[in-house]
Amino acid sequence: MGSRPVSDDGVYLADQVQIAAKILVVGHFAVGKTTFIGTMSEIPPLRTEERMTQAGAHVDDLMGTRGKTTTTVAMDFGRLTLSDRLVLYLFGTPGQERFVQVWEDMTRGALGALILVDPERLKESFPVIDLVEQYGLPYAISVNHFDGTPARPDDELREALDLLPETPIVTCDARDEKSSANALMSLVRYLQERTR
């Protein structure tokens, strides 16, 4: 029987291996994905934002987007170490329908998705939820509470989004580290429960 490799300090090397988990942060156009990843990432996030132009005005509906001037055209990327053994790699997808082809590559190897939702634009979340389900990814819903929007009860949101009873739903502010971390942890806990 072979011996397990041991480091100089007597710790089994296999016990030091970190587990990397790929998590998608998805949602419709202008829901706060770039902000969320920027808030949660322990490294300077990779962003592929471009300035919006008049040429895209007929394609991207800016109603209710509160002064948005840039948009993600490929992806956002960030990293978050949860423990000595677990590191999350956060991949943010573009929200516009014309970038859907990017999703197929991004879903490969992903353990799950955190779907950001604007409570004032719930209808825009349906195609996103459909895509996540199409790719078979388990997901949690994070309602990004924007300034001045009234809070809505979880059961009302659950019914409006037609969610299964076990699908986690949590409210966050993508600009706030604590509430964003809580949203992310709701997904991580859900993924852990599914593997037991």
Automatic annotation (TrEMBL):
<dbReference type="Pfam" id="PF03029">
    <property type="entry name" value="ATP_bind_1"/>
</dbReference>
<protein>
    <submittedName>
        <fullName>ATP/GTP-binding protein</fullName>
    </submittedName>
</protein>
<keyword id="KW-0342">GTP-binding</keyword>
<comment type="similarity">
    <text>Belongs to the GPN-loop GTPase family.</text>
</comment>
<keyword id="KW-0378">Hydrolase</keyword>
<dbReference type="InterPro" id="IPR027417">
    <property type="entry name" value="P-loop_NTPase"/>
</dbReference>
<keyword id="KW-0547">Nucleotide-binding</keyword>
<dbReference type="InterPro" id="IPR052705">
    <property type="entry name" value="Gliding_Motility_GTPase"/>
</dbReference>
<dbReference type="InterPro" id="IPR004130">
    <property type="entry name" value="Gpn"/>
</dbReference>
